[in-house]
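Chain A, query sequence.
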Amino acid sequence: MKWWKADGSFSYFNSLVEGAYAGEQLKNEMNSWTAKVNTSINLWGIADLQFNFTYNAPTVTIQGEFSEVYWADMGIKADLIPNTLTLNFRVSDLFDSMTHEGKSFGKNFESITYWKRASQTAFLGITYRLNEFRRQKQKSADEERREGGEEM
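Chain A, predicted structure.
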């Protein structure tokens, strides 16, 4: 399908964190994974619509862990004047879901932190290309020799 493209990536891994502090041996381990999906749709040859989704499973720290975090972004790009004027619009964290929690703990403490992106963000961009550069076909070595006046 020429009008639709999709790709993705997936990673599965084991995190092992070891260390020492104030004479105490510290160790934490966890299997975790990440995934990303990108899809692009051509809208009738006049614009491209793109969606990106990212997921990071919980991960460990030396004294705790971070919870999962996931988000989706969306963008659209349209060539208003082919090879000259392009309009871009993008929204980050489309569903306002980019949050996660961190937990740290030890013998005498427990700490819980909560993180949330301050707000969804929208970007609008306009690109105007002056003197659009186009590469010329590379001349063959024979043509260059002939033009250079080399004689045998």
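The chain has one helix and ten strands. Residues 135-139 have pLDDT under 50 and may be disordered.
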